[in-house]
Amino acid sequence: MTSSHLTRRRLMQSGAVVAAAAGGWSPAFAEDVRLRVFWWGSKERAERTDKVNALYQQKNPGVTVAGESLGWTDYWPRLATQSAGRNAADLIQMDYRYIFEYARRGGLMALDPFVGKQLALNEFSQAAVDSGKVDGKIYGISLGLNSTAMIYDKTAIEAAGLKVPTWNMSWQEIGDFAVELTKATKKKDYFGIHDGGRYEPALEVFLRQRGRELYNEEGKLGFGEADIGDWFALWDGLRKRGGCATAEVQALEMGEIDTSLLTLGKSAMVLAHSNQLVGFQALSKGKLALSMYPSGGAGAKPGQYLKPSQLMSVYSRTKSPEAAAKLLDFFVNDLEAGRTLGVERGVPASNAVRKAIEPTLDELSKSMADYVAFVSDKVSALPPPPPQGAGEIQLVLRKVNEQIGFNRLSVADGAKQFMAEAKGVLARG
Amino acid sequence: MFLLPWFAGFFGLTLGPAVASLYLSFTDFDLIRDPRWIGAANYVRIATNDPKFAAAMGVTFFYVALAVPLKLCFALAIALVLNRGIAGLPIYRAIFYLPSLLGASVAIAVLWRQLFAGDGLVNKFLAIFGVEGSSWISNPSYSLYTLVALSVWQFGSPMIIFLAGLRQLPKEIYEAASIDGASTQQQFWKITLPMLTPVIFFNGVVQTIDAFKAFTPAFIISGGTGGPIDSTLFYTLYLYQEAFALFRMGYASALAWILVLIIAAFTAFAFLSQRYWVHYGE
After folding, report:
1. What do you get for the CA distance between the two ends of chain B, in Å?
2. Which has fewest Cβ within 10 Å: A25, A35, B147, B201?
3. CA-to-CA distance for A300 and A206, rounded, in angstroms?
């Protein structure tokens, strides 16, 4: 999906370049710059981003911006291949999980030299700036603020004659609620909540509420066998009581919005991220709403944190670093660009942009912005960065939770096996 | 000179990358930093310390051992029926060949997912007989069988080859056999099958190689995870995960070369075994 339509202006330019080359005075056009932007996301996002690219071209003659986009699953292999071929786009949309992998391997450019020149960050809070740092240097600029969120089908819950969940319900209470919900809806293969046992962000919130971490500063596991055992037991109990999806139904979920049990009409609640509300709503008939993840109960620590929904990074081998930084600045600071992008990538990190777009938001976008504002005093600091191999541990979590779900392992053995496999992965790095 | 495009393609797009991947298999390469020579360490790890390698091998061998014979039997059976000289043969041939054209595509894998899901068409059909089916693709006990079924369904290309083979068989032999009082069954076992062995051999080798390389259906049906519980973790899928999801291109290259060796060994074995069971008409 590219947005490089041939315009008359560009056609004349290329004609001019040919003429210039023939006449031997090409240096006059040395400022002609071609930039590529690469992101993952829905069609909705592609349309909005293409508009911003076109807007930038209009305001900056001599610069061509071409966009490319793919779905999440296809995006990362493509980016890895392009990086290996030394042919990645100039601006690369990054995820908090991958920025460490790419920055530490030298795939991204440190942006500190551009700050205050091409790239203004004075409308960003320190926390927002820090969320794009790797080992003390800025490698990504936050495109939006985000937090984990439980997305629920308000229509379905009310149709079942129940009240929607509130933000301070504990894991136990949400579990009971889910069991009640499954019973009240009386539909085959429909459950109160999906099986979140395999979902790493949910495990992380659960651990932080107990004062543990997924990974500590040394890049080791920040929790023990007892913690993961409690986690698997929580979901195993819910499966047995009928509150969450059976292993067989859960295995249909592939990790993207279009195969989520909520989208497939098989569950009323899913654990997800707040910015995904827009994407989920686009595929759901019922009216959706956000709530916080279940709490750890009395005396527990806050588990959630605000994180960048996406970051924008600059490729380490870009031919025009300054121009790339300038385009990045336009993405995050320009008010018109901000209005075009809306909150589809999360609530903008720049205070000025946030204020400017507030009046233009529709109801759904507003509820998301409100959610982020609501949780911002109920969260704690960003966790330490995930170590190398963290991606593989996600696969281990998913597999062990499935083994327990299909009764191939007991909870206790599952916990043992998870610890052994995860430690093995981290040792390999 | 007319071979030039072929040479360019072979050296540029096949041999070049193959040599590069052989080199990479002896390195630690994360796709972004330059590869670092580590000798045979990747191969040592595969051989001694990789439980997932063994799991992926198990899935793949099971698949090959089940899908290839089933597919060949099915293809031969349909070819025999079509060879009886029914009217409209080209049409049937085209219809039966169609799945093979579509088979490796993403669309069919997605369709398969829908068919064998808990509320899919297969279970709706079973429900007519009062059978309550499982969600076949998302149950680790059955998921691999749905992929075997998908493979068998694509029997078109071996069928066409069998059909061509059947057409070549001299009619006189059958006439002679009929006169001697051989039943149709006897004719099949004593004449058709032995004379068809070169074609069976060819189909067997091609289909085995294909089955070892199967990737798309498993990738789509499990969303690239090889799940549930690694039950569809094909060797190629494992290799893909290592290379593109976990940034271990060096290790993945070593895995790829092991697969090449396995396929080569199977093919060599098949060729060596020919003298015992394949009859070429003299």
Report:
1. 37
2. A25
3. 10
Which amino acid is residue B253, in one-letter code?
A: S
Asked if residues B238 and B226 have their Cβ atoms less than 8 Å apart, the reply is yes
Q: Return the structure tokens found at A331.
A: 């993405």
Task: Give residue A319's region: left, alpha or beta (phi > 0; psi -120 to 50).
Answer: alpha
Give whole-number Cα distances, A56 to A35, A278, A313, A326, B276, in Å.
Answer: 11, 25, 18, 10, 72
How far does A192 lie from chain B, in Å, by closest CA?
18
C-alpha B72/C-alpha B156 separation (Å) is 10
The residue with tokens 């990538």 is A345
- The verdict on ipTM greater than 0.85 is no
Pull the structure tokens for residue A219: 């890049």
Sheet of A191-193: strands edge to edge?
A: A191-193, A267-273, A148-153, A288-291
What are the φ and ψ backbone dihedral angles of A92, each rounded to 5 degrees? -125, 125
Handedness of CA A243, A248, A251, A252 (dihedral sign): negative
pLDDT tens for the 282 residues of chain B, in order? 777 888 888 877 788 888 888 888 888 888 778 888 888 888 888 888 888 898 899 999 999 999 999 999 988 888 888 887 777 777 877 877 777 776 566 777 777 777 777 677 777 777 777 676 677 777 787 788 888 888 888 888 888 888 888 888 888 888 888 888 878 888 888 888 888 888 888 888 988 988 888 887 777 777 777 778 888 888 988 988 888 888 888 899 999 999 999 999 989 998 888 888 887 765
CA dist., res. B166 & res. B164, Å (int): 6
Q: How far apart are CA B123 and CA B260, in angstroms?
A: 39
Q: Tell me the residue type at B230.
A: D
Contacts of B135 in chain A (CB under 8 A): 248-249, 251-252
Alpha-helical segments (H) within A143-288: 154-159, 171-185, 200-209, 225-241, 247-250, 277-283
Contacts of A252 in chain B (CB under 8 A): 117-118, 135, 137-138
Q: Which two tokens stand for residue A79?
A: 């980016």
Phi/psi of residue A63, nearest 5 degrees: -110, 130
Determine contact, residues B143/B221, Cβ cutoff 8 Å.
yes
Amino acid at the residue A274: S
**A379 CA to chain B: closest CA distance, Å?**
30
Report yes or no: B19 at the A interface, CB cutoff 8 Å. Answer: no
The alpha carbon of residue B32 is apart from the nearest alpha carbon of chain A, in Å, by 5
What is the CA angle B29-B235-A101, rounded to 5? 30
